[in-house]
Design brief:
Largest sheet: 5 strands, antiparallel
Low-confidence stretches: none
Number of helices: 3
Strand content: 35-45%
């Protein structure tokens, strides 16, 4: 299982990533989370113009599961990183069962194409595309 540190407040995290860049923010979190300071400090200094810094208390940071393409990822604690076809484990009356579904952006949100999100227990990437109806009828 993979884990990562992230800010608890998603809107704050998104704003900071816009200003400082996703890679910079993630690197600073990894680098500073275990030091003796009570804060995460992020800064930028451009040669011409913008100079910026922000200090955020470490109490605003949490450790969460991160997407791992080599393992089952619990849903909705972890969401697919992109649209695509995934092998999913679904809740059922008896034992959970496996099926294939697409994770798509539809009706203004990311969702499973054929399955109800509340029924999806876990997912992992499907490294092959399922056959199309035309291929099945050949």
């Amino acid at each position: 299982m993979k884990y990562k540190y992230q800010f608890k407040n998603k809107e704050l995290a998104d704003a900071i990533k816009v200003i400082y860049g996703k890679e910079c923010v993630e690197n600073e979190l990894k680098k500073q989370i275990k030091d003796e300071s009570d804060n995460i400090f992020i800064e930028t200094f451009e040669l011409e113009g913008i100079k910026s810094s922000i200090t955020i208390p470490k109490t605003e940071v949490e450790l969460v599961r991160d997407y791992d393409p080599d393992c089952w990822n619990p849903f909705p604690a972890v969401t697919p990183p992109k649209e695509g076809v995934y092998l999913i484990s679904l809740r059922s009356v008896g034992e959970p069962y496996l099926t294939v579904d697409k994770y798509v952006f539809k009706f203004g949100e990311y969702r499973w194409d054929d399955s109800l999100s509340g029924d999806v227990l876990a997912f992992r990437p499907l490294n092959v595309e399922p056959p199309t109806p035309e291929e099945l009828n050949e």
